[in-house]
Structure formats: structure tokens, C-alpha cells
Amino acid sequence: MNDLTAVKAEARKAAFARRKAAHEAAPPGEAGHLAEVLAGYRGVPLSAYMAIRTEIDPLPVMAEAAAHGPVGVPVIQRKGLPLKFSRWEPGCALREGPFGAMIPETDDFFEPEILIVPLVAFDRQGGRLGYGGGFYDRTLELLRSKRATLAIGFAYAAQEVEELPLEPTDQPLDMVVTEREVISL
């Protein structure tokens, strides 16, 4: 394990503890300012995620967005590949995907132009610390090579850190939305 890998692992461990505490203290259904942000993008194809463990839950906002345009959730194909996004609708049949995240039972893939991205930690320079698989970095690089793609980190304010250990392959966020504020980067 190289130095940066060890530093990232330590940063992740501390960030998971902060996220867990914030999650336990948050009122149920807390979607922060995400609905306000997405109101300006009605109908634009977007992807969010089915929250796992202590992630802040975008489900209420996903349901609202699905009334105006396509909403998808990420589907991991296999290690080392970018994510694909399968169309999700409120009440659709789901199955368990890799890492325990629920995904639509029937795949209906499309390319989103906005990605609501889960994270472990973020900074105000657009840095994002994820789970370490590089899925979102590969995906954002691919999508951004084709068209403008907006990456919105969705997190609890407590997940903010001053600085993150980043690599050249880490794709920046364009915005972070928390329960307290919208941070444009």
C-alpha cells in the first residue's frame, strides 16, 4: 500500500465516523437543499442513488424529479469499469446490486447529464472522497468527454473537511448540497 492509499484509508475512516454521527442526528427524510437545486433542471436526465448505510437519502427528491424527466440509479458492471445508469421510477421493482445498493429489476440504461453523487467526505475545492473503487471518477471522466455533465455531491455538512488527499484521476464536483447549504464550486 503506497502512502497516498494509506492516507486516503485513514481519511475515509474518520469521514465514515463523522457521517454516521450526522446521519444519526438528522431528521428522517432530510434532503437538504437538493430539491431547490434540481428545480432549475427539470426534465434534464439525471442519476441519483439508493442510499446505503449512513448516506444522506435522495429518494424524496428522486421521486419529484421522476415526474419531469428520466431518473436513474448507478449499476456497477464490474471492477474497473464506469457505472451504467438504469432508469428508476417510484415504486418500480428493485433487486439487490453489488455492495447492497438496490437497482431496478429491469435494466433500462441511459446517460444522465446530472449526477447526484454519494460521498464519504468533501472539501470546498470540489474534492470528493468516495469508497475507493473509482467508479464515479471513471464515469464522470467518460461522460464529461462526451458532453457537459454536472456532478453534485450530496452529503451532510459534517462530511466537509478542509483538504482531501486527491489523485490526478479524481474528478471534481461542480457543487455540493448539504442539509444546510448549497456550495457552488
TrEMBL record:
Per the UniProt entry, the Enzyme Commission number(s) are 6.3.3.2
Q: Cite a single GO MF annotation.
A: 5-formyltetrahydrofolate cyclo-ligase activity
What this protein catalyses is: (6S)-5-formyl-5,6,7,8-tetrahydrofolate + ATP = (6R)-5,10-methenyltetrahydrofolate + ADP + phosphate
The cofactor required is: Mg(2+)
| Record key words, sorted | ATP-binding, Ligase, Magnesium, Metal-binding, Nucleotide-binding
Q: Which InterPro entries is this protein grouped with?
A: FTHF_cligase (IPR002698), FTHF_cligase-like_sf (IPR024185), NagB/RpiA_transferase-like (IPR037171)
What domain of life does the UniProt record list for this protein's source? Bacteria
* One GO term (biological process): folic acid-containing compound biosynthetic process
- Which is an annotated Pfam family here? 5-FTHF_cyc-lig
Q: Which residues form a coiled coil?
A: none
Which family does the record claim for this protein?
Answer: Belongs to the 5-formyltetrahydrofolate cyclo-ligase family.
Its recorded name reads 5-formyltetrahydrofolate cyclo-ligase
